[in-house]
Every structure is written in C-alpha cells, then in structure tokens.
From TrEMBL:
This is Zinc-ribbon domain-containing protein. The lineage of its organism: Bacteria, Bacillati, Actinomycetota, Actinomycetes, Micrococcales. Residues 4-86 form the Zinc-ribbon domain. InterPro entries: UCP012641 (IPR031321), Zinc-ribbon_6_bact (IPR011201).
Length: 355
C-alpha cells in the first residue's frame, strides 16, 4: 500500500481514513489515480476536470469516490459485492463495514498489479463477493465457486477469529488473508486453467488439481499435514490439495509484495546482520513508488524480491516481539516454495502485461 497525504494540509493519512486527523477535512480516495483528496464543503471534489462524489456506501465507512458523470453510485470495489446482510441487522452490518476495508485493500492491490477485475455483472463467472455473517444468520462457509467469493463476516471479531486459528492450528489468520486466498482460487481458474502451458507448469509444481478434492479434504482434517510439510509448502493448509497450495502461495505473494510496497513508501532501510556487522550486500533502501511499487515487480525476478523480503520480514518479526506480540510473518520459505512463488509471480506479470 502506498503512503497517502491529505491534499489540504499535507499530513500523512491512511488508506482507510475518512477524515484527516490534523485539519479535520473529510477525505475521499480516487481509485485509478491513487489520490486521497479533501472534499469541499458541498461534499464533492474535482480532479482532472472531473467531479467526484462519495460512494453510496459511505455510511459503511467506504471512503472511495465515484466520478459523477458515470451514473454509478457505488465505487468499483463496492460494485463487486453481490450479497450483504440486511441493513436492519445492525451486528452484521457493523461487521460488514469492517470487512469492506479488507476488500477495498485487496481491490487496490489487484488493480495496481494489473490483474483483470471483471465483475459478475459484466460476465458470468466474473468476480462477486458474498459477505454474510454466521453470527446472526445461518452458518457461512468461506470459499470460492465460479467467481463467487464467500466470506464469513464473523471473522472480523478478534476473539472469534483467534479461536478458529487456534482450533485449526494456523499461525496466521486475518480477514485480508481470507480475501487474498480466495481470490487466488479465482485467478487459478481465470489465468492458469485456461492456459495449457501454465496449467502443465502448475501441475508440475503444485500437483495434479484433478485429485478428488472432497477426499483430500477429509484426509487432511483426519490425518493433518505430514510432519515434513514445511520443506515443500508455505502452510499446513497448503498440503491439503493442489488448489489450496496455489491459493495459499498466491495469498503469500500478495502479503509479501503488499508489505514491501508499504515499506518502500516509507523509505525503510534494509540491513542484514552477519555476526555483529551489517552485511553490505543487504544494506540499502527499498525504492519508493513508482520504483518498488507493485507494478515494478513485473521487472524483478522472484529471487530479488525474496532476498529483499527476508531481512524485512525478520525485522518486522523482531519489532512485533519487542511489542510483546507474535511474529508478523511466522513462515519459512523453503526452496520448493520459492519455485511456487516464482510461478505465481510469472502469472501476475503475464496478466499485468496483457492488461
């Protein structure tokens, strides 16, 4: 995520902020030009001779703007939401507002990588998000099917999500992680399955996706992951089936590149300790946008990305430990996982070039 500033006072603001804490201006994000603008008193803003108004989901904390001449009332990210709780369900609606932060962050990252974002309204099998809550309604199963990503809004609650994380033996579980994982299934379907060459390479690395999914699911929850899973997989869940291995790897690629972009936006320095001295090979700054933004990854090989990520992840883990928290990135990237990440990187790069 890039760093943003208030267009009125220049203060640093967050991607999700609806107002500037320094000058009090109401803020709006213009998707596609990556600008956070301070609205005028009439609640609009003009950019590049176009008039922008707040998204109709502003009451749900959506801070994105819509170009008024398009006739749309919802921003591009909100238009992908197909199902949502009834407005009278106050608990689920509050959960929805929090989950939408993650959905917009995902949308922005996919857009910046140049990945195709076709809506279910424009084509059968296009992207649709069903955001429903098992807290106040029937049980919701998180998953993907034919472009539809279903998310259980109950997981915005820390206690609920942590309880599931501990029950399933997961070191990491977030709402944004769910979105990134499930959209990985969609892009496997859209970008890999439709390309014979990519599909063959994918099956060589991840395994044969034609393996019975339900049987593998039952095996996984009965037997668990093999003891040596970390030698070939990014997570225990990735061992369940080639589809899940791809989706987990895809999500981690977005975790890594998104975090590196944020570090670059704040001009963070990299360094690696060798004994009691800094390794000169690892010293230096991550280039800031547009240099080391998500779009620049298309021109970098995966080894360069991961060589920069390694000391950065270790630093973040140490910072978290200093705050008394668990590691930010509690994963080990083994050589086979690097190869899988390289494959995902090539899929993303190819899609970005085509777009």
């Amino acid at each position: 995520m890039r760093a943003f500033s208030c267009s009125r006072c220049g203060a640093l603001v967050n991607f999700d902020d609806g107002s500037c804490l320094t000058c009090g201006s109401t803020l709006g994000y213009i998707e596609g030009v990556d600008r956070m603008r301070a609205l005028e008193e009439n609640g609009t803003v003009t950019w590049d001779r176009a008039l922008y108004v707040p998204c109709a989901n502003a009451e749900l904390s959506c801070n994105w703007l819509v170009e008024s001449s398009t006739g749309e009332i919802h921003c591009p990210a909100c238009r992908l939401i197909r199902k949502r709780p009834h407005p009278a369900d106050e608990v689920a609606t509050d959960q929805l507002a929090k989950a939408m932060h993650a959905e917009r962050r995902l949308f922005a990252q996919l857009r910046e990588n140049g990945l195709p974002l076709v809506s279910y309204e424009d084509r059968a099998g296009g992207i649709a998000f069903d955001l429903l809550s098992s807290t106040t309604g029937p049980n919701v199963t998180i998953g993907h099917a034919n472009g539809v990503v279903t998310i259980d809004l109950s997981e915005v609650g820390d206690a609920y999500r942590v309880r599931l994380r501990e029950k399933l033996g997961e070191p990491y579980r977030t709402m944004l992680g769910h979105f990134r994982h499930e959209i990985g299934h969609y892009y496997w379907q859209e970008l890999v399955f439709s390309d014979d060459v990519l599909l063959d390479d994918c099956r060589r690395l991840f395994g044969d996706d034609r393996t019975d999914y339900r049987a593998e699911l039952e095996r996984h929850y009965k037997e668990g992951a093999p003891d040596d899973w970390s030698e070939s997989f990014i997570s225990e869940y990735a061992t369940m089936h080639p589809w899940e291995d791809f989706a987990e790897t895809w999500a981690h690629y977005l975790h890594i590149t998104g975090t590196m972009q944020t570090a670059a936006a704040f001009s963070m320095q990299l360094g690696g300790l060798v004994g009691d001295k800094l390794d000169p090979i690892l010293q230096g700054s991550l280039r800031s946008a547009p240099g080391y933004s998500a779009t620049a990854y298309r021109d970098s090989d995966i080894d360069s990305i991961l060589d920069a990520w390694h000391p950065l992840a270790r630093a973040f883990n140490q910072i978290n430990r200093s705050m008394g928290k668990a590691d930010l990135y509690p994963f080990v990237i083994a050589v086979p996982v690097r190869e899988k990440l390289a494959f995902v990187h090539e899929v993303v790069r190819r899609a970005g070039r085509e777009q």
